[in-house]
Amino acid sequence: MESPAHIADVPAERPQTFRELGVIDSLCEACDSLGYSTPTPIQANCIPVALQGRDVIGLAETGSGKTAAFTIPLLQALMENPQPYHSLILAPTRELAQQIAQTVEALGAVISVRCTLLIGGVDMIPQAISLGKKPHVIVATPGRLLDHLENTKGFSLRHLKYLVLDEADRLLDLDFGPILDKLLRLLPSRKTYLFSATMSSKVESLQRASLSNPVKISVSTNNQTASNLLQFYLFIPHKFKDVYLVHLLNERAGQMGILFTRTIMETQRLALMLRNLNFPAIPIHGQLSQSSRLASLNKFRSRSRTLLIATDVAARGLDIPAVDFVVNCDLPQDSKTYIHRVGRTARAGKSGRAFSIVTQYDVEIWLRIEAALGKKVDEYKPEKDEVMIFANRVHDAQRMAISALKEQNQDGKGTRSKGSGRQRKRGRDDMDQEEV
Ligand SMILES: Nc1ncnc2c1ncn2[C@@H]1O[C@H](COP(=O)(O)OP(=O)(O)OP(=O)(O)O)[C@@H](O)[C@H]1O
Predict the structure, then answer these.
(1) Residue 252 near residue 306, CB atoms below 8 Å
(2) Distance from C-alpha of 19 to C-alpha of 24, rounded to nearest angstrom
(3) Concatenated DSSP letters of 254-272
(4) CATH number assigned to the domain covering 229-411
(5) Which atom of ligand 1 approaches the CA of 348 most closely?
(6) How much is the ipTM here?
(7) Which residue's CA is minimally distant from atom 30 of ligand 1?
(8) Is the CATH number 3.40.50.300 carried by domain 5-218?
(9) Which of 206-210, 238-242, 252-256 has the lowest mean pLDDT?
């Protein structure tokens, strides 16, 4: 791979309309109908270059409209030369793939685009049937796509014209590496777009995607977080984490928040504890069935639950514009994950807040994150006396959560059976019936 040419960080003159970028009328109308009146900077920079037929590496902060930046050129190319299996978009999580497919369908409706979603955790047969209908665009997670390429009769991507890796640094990292290498060997030469808010600088990892003379377009600020995002940290002893968290949530009662934890077990424990305190909390993590994962997201999107307790399956890409705040209950292991997590709020020009709980055990990792952000984050220091008012209630809720988790694990399941007797007797609403 030649080393990517680097073009201007921000355009000197930003075009005011999609038409001025060279986008055809029908797609301009589609943008209009979605309320995209002005292209965002990444769109203004990427679309003309992509329309010239170049490979693109697109870097821009979270929530800045990267999905449309790669979808519009790809749909325009499809309009010019319609064919089945024209484009493939890969994403690292099922929920993100589903969200991208929705954007492709929304932007492509005016040109009757056929889009198929291939994700794990759900039946392969309806997906195989849908592939039989010769979709123009496939949006997929890597494992399931490979499964179809190997096992679905008559399906091949021999004639593929466009490949997009969304969250490209994640797809090209070690976890996905082997499967991606296998996939890429099955694809012909094509136009390739890599997009993310964070990118590996390792040329070897980018080489995997076999780009051809790519243009790197970066409209990221130095620290990759949106300027309308206010970030804070709380420095507190580990044993008070939950009580400070409850205080934080009480202050934001009724707002929509995503709470990130490091492990599935902690996600389950927190969801149970918060429900015991009557917070409308719902978990999402990789041990839930896919239908429960989607149900959790849908309840959150529709605001029937306002707190989503998540592992990093929800860290990247999810676009829920109403999210007011993010809490890092446990710090992420690396600064890239931090950037993606906090980017679940303050999207598309809206404001948002992110709080990180830092304990005596996390100082080193927090300093590393701050260094990567390139700035000092403000401390958020609630009055200790006010916080401790909740200590007893939090303690009770913790105990109940732990015993419910133990009970669940004794049932021999990773997820709770439909409401144990004790859970039901508490007589709350259907929260008790939800999987944790
Ligand atoms: N030109 C535009 N005008 C107004 N809103 C837009 C425009 N383009 C995209 N949006 C909206 O901005 C939001 C964020 O877009 P998107 O999800 O593509 O961000 P992203 O850059 O991919 O973020 P992440 O890095 O977190 O994946 C979406 O709700 C999208 O509908």
Answers:
(1) no
(2) 7
(3) TS-EEEE-SSHHHHHHHHH
(4) 3.40.50.300
(5) 12
(6) 0.99
(7) 65
(8) yes
(9) 206-210
